[in-house]
Amino acid sequence: MPHDMAYTTGLHEIGDSCFAYLQPNGSWGWSNAGLVVGDGASLLVDTLFDLRLTTEMLDSMSAFTAVSPIATLLNTHANGDHCYGNHLVGGVEIIASTATALEMSEVPPAMLHALNSAPGEVGELFRYFFGAFDFDGIEVRLPTRTFDGRLELDVAGRSVELIEVGPAHTRGDTIAYVPDAKTVYTGDILFIGGTPIVWAGPLSNWIAACDVLLGLDVETVVPGHGPVTDKAGIVAVRDYLSFVEAEAGKLHAAGIDAWEAARTIARDIGTREQFSGWSEFGRIAVNVDTAYRSLDPSYVAPNVVDQFRHMAQLEGFPG
Fold first, then answer.
1. What's the pLDDT band for 124 if we cut at 50, 70, 90?
2. How far apart are CA 286 and CA 7, in angstroms?
């Protein structure tokens, strides 16, 4: 079965002319992408975090795209590891939800380049997360077509359904469902083997997005990060989000501040077999901030640098 395939770097055929491009280990910036090949044209689902990685991915697809060139690029959401390589895919229509398109210009590559190059503790912090990537020389290429809700694409005779399920991970999240292959590309609605991070939320929206995925007739699920999975992977992410939402609600009602709540829930997660082996567990700090913001609109989350500090601290970063 496709979800039992080896989790190795590169292009993997997952059936019926659908492909997943995987990047182990799936942690910060090591995202997946996809290719849906029709009769003479293809759809690319996401680009990668920098130009070298995106070039390697496009080269790996060339045997298929030489016959069925990429005509359309979908950006599932605005994080750079899913869109910074856009300008290497020249002359194609770029599609995203309206919310994604608006968010894509907020964290330009130059900002990450500056943070990675910063002196002192800030530079060390961001190199801990993103030091493997080169953000120099990237030109942001924004979507040329936007949609809200749902959009059905004809990929050279193949139907692909784009379904907006955000705000969840970001303010705009889209999944791409290929009915004839029983395959779905989820973007960062799914992290498999790694902890989801809820930048936008609310968590209830992300839980609802998992329910949308579970309602589809799918056998093969390509996450934004981690190995190819099936519906069991969707259930695991839904269970984590439901657990965090419930625990954060209890601690908020008890008057516990968000940072202490995050540390408390992190300790509890470490004792739970279904979540304890997941990487990037420090993301609970951001997830609790988002939960608290949903419970109290007046709650102000820490700035993004402090959020990264909190995540690194929970994971034992010595900086």
1. very high
2. 28
Give the separation between CA 300 and CA 161, rounded to whole angstroms. Answer: 37
> Would you say residue 2 has pLDDT above 60?
no
Contact 191, 23 (CB under 8 A): no
Rounded to whole angstroms, how far apart are CA atoms 243 and 290? 14
Q: Which CATH architecture has domain 2-232?
A: 4-Layer Sandwich (3.60)
Helices (H), the chain: 51-60, 62-65, 98-103, 109-117, 120-130, 203-214, 231-253, 258-269, 273-276, 284-295, 304-314
Task: Identify whether the C-beta of residue 234 lies closer than 8 Å to the C-beta of residue 242.
Answer: no
Tokens of 297: 């609109």
DSSP letters of 4-53?
A: GS---SEEEEEETTEEEEE-TT--TT---EEEEE-SS-EEEE---SSHHH
pTM of the model: 0.97
Amino acid at 281: F
Cβ atoms < 10 Å from Cβ of 208: 14
Per-residue pLDDT, 112: 96
- Of the given ranges (14-23, 152-161, 268-277, 294-303), which has the lowest mean pLDDT? 268-277
| pLDDT for 5 | 81
3-state secondary structure of 160: strand
Distance CA 227, CA 123 (A): 30
Structural domain spans, the chain: 2-232
Condensed to tens digits (0 to 9), the pLDDT of residues 17-32 reads 999 999 999 999 999 9
